[in-house]
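Annotators were shown the component list below and the corresponding predicted structure, then asked to write short factual statements about the assembly.
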Amino acid sequence: MTRILVADDDEAMRAALRVALEVEGYDVEAVSNGELAVQAHEKRPADVLITDLFMAERDGFETMKHFRARNPGMWIVVISGWQPWQKTDYLGVALHGGADVVLRKPFTPGELLDKLPDPLPRIQRDTR
Amino acid sequence: MPSGGGVKITIQRQLVRLVAASVIPAAVCSSFLILYSYDRQREIVEGGALDVARAMTQTVDRELARNQAALQVLATSSYLASGDLAAFHRQAQQATRELGDVFVLSDASGQQLVNTQAAFGDPLPPRASLAQVRRVFETGRPAISDLFVGATTRRPLVVIDVPVRVDDRIAYALAMGLFPERLGGVLKDQKIPHDWVVSIFDSQGTIVARTHAAAQFIGQKGAPALVQHMARNAEGQVETDTLEGIPVVAVFSRSAVSHWSVAIGVPRSSITRALWIPIGWLIAGAVLIFAAGMVMAHRLGAAISRSIHGLIPPAVALGRGDPVVVPALHLREADDVGRELVSASERLHDRERTLALVSHDLRSPLNVFMIGVATIERLAQRLPGGEPLCALASSLTDTTRRMSGMVDDLLSIAVSTGGGRSLLKLASVSAAALLKQADDAARPLFEGRDVRLELEVLGVLPEIRVESNRVLRVFANLIDNALKFTEPQGCVMLQAKAESDAVRFSVANSGPALPVAELESMFQSFWQAGQDDRRGAGLGLAICRSIVEAHGGRIWAEPEPGKRVRICFTLPLAGISAPKGAVLQGRLPLPRPAQP
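Structure shown to annotators:
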């Protein structure tokens, strides 16, 4: 089963993403910063990393750099509230820095799922 | 684009003008002062010359009177009373050693009886100045002749006649002839500048004596202009040439006794020398000061230019959003501007940091809500009888999207009106392709509605220099707005046309025409189509205006028969210079800001 690591300092966002992805059959662990994501990965390696950019304790750029150096095959999705009118293209920087895909907030679960590699093994949950 | 038209002038040239403005009026004033001084000098010289002329006139009168007195003494000779003319001839010859040059005794008919130039008894001609002899016999008073050529001497001379009384009647006229050389001695005694030409004239304007070239000009009439003035006035001055051709200012004084005149010709060159020497110094001084001023202006201008040009890289960096570094500038004012540029740059970065923070803080909860609702919707789809929940979740998703759009709109306005131009990422794009994108994006909105979307392109559309996403937002807002206010079976028309320096786009929709007053106010924030209409936040058109104007374009609404309204906007062609402060695409990303 595909394991997804979510790193976002917004607790509500972590919860929403975890539920949304678990509903789709993924094994999800959500942590509040990059450092905890590294620790979680060391305990149980993940296949996909979904990370916000601005967090305390190792932000998204450093986290991505860490994983890209040690886990070249890991699928990394960077999410951010960056907008086109903002001067610095942080999502562009993230793509340069090793992200496989980037996603601008706000997004729907469907848009996020479209960014994941296909096929990813997932469990069949009976939601009934 | 620089503001204001007309020819621009450099600081150096301005300083040169300043120097000229300082030196030239001073030089002009000095010239006037010199001219005034020259006039005063000339008056003084002329006044002085006139005084000399008066004094010399009196001297001539005294000389004539002295000779006349001596002659009157000789007229009392006892030889004349006794009729011993031979003895008188000897006495008169002795007198020529100290007094006049020639003595002549004549009777009332003018016949010469004695002439010291001839031996006594020699036959003598009648007097040449017969009229003067007759006047002496008639009036019994002395008389002085003008210059004439003597009958015996055959030389020009002046004659003084006095009556000789014998037994209470006038028996003879005794004449003393004076050659011009003797009168010229009067001139030699005067201390006058050597270049002044002094002449003694008789009552007819004939030169009797002269300081310069006497031998050549004695016996000739003076310069015509001078002679005319002397004939009319007792004193005066006239600008003329001497008989040698020297330009002079001639002053003269005529004797009321002898009616003879003394004229002094002061060469104009000696007067103008007093003018040209200071003017020469003035010109030399002005040229020197002007040249020194030019050098100073050039150096100062260069220093100021260096300081101002030193501000260009920081200004460009500010426009690009790069860190602003102001070099050391010598000019305090330029330094102040540099500090303000640094401060403006910091404020701009602060603004971006604030916007990033606001964006993040607003978007995250919205995104949480959106993900949550979407998850609920997906779960509800799997539940039997979950359709109402699905519909509710779908509606909540739409609402969340609209809220997100409003956040975008608010931030977009803040950026566009508060220095957002510097955030534009301009690129050359095909206007036709952009129009097609806008059309494609809008088509789904028309599905299921009985409203047509018509696209019309007039001519070939060139490339424009825009940020595509921003312009697509303009199209989206305008089309969305038009669709909202189009009745079923109506249509929305999208049109594009190339103009000389821009492409003009327009969006029109069918329906009852908007009041003309609305056409101007509709681009203001929070404008609503009707009092009771609350189908939007009223920011859509204000955002369109901000975006279009940030691109250097123009947006306006115009009425059209049969249409509700036509909203037009222009965007500059790719060849036209970018709006001030616009940032071109392709620059390097900046270091990210501090963590929000």
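Statements collected:
1. Residues 11-23 of chain A form the longest helix (13 residues).
2. Strands of chain A lie at 3-7, 27-31, 48-52, 75-80, 101-104.
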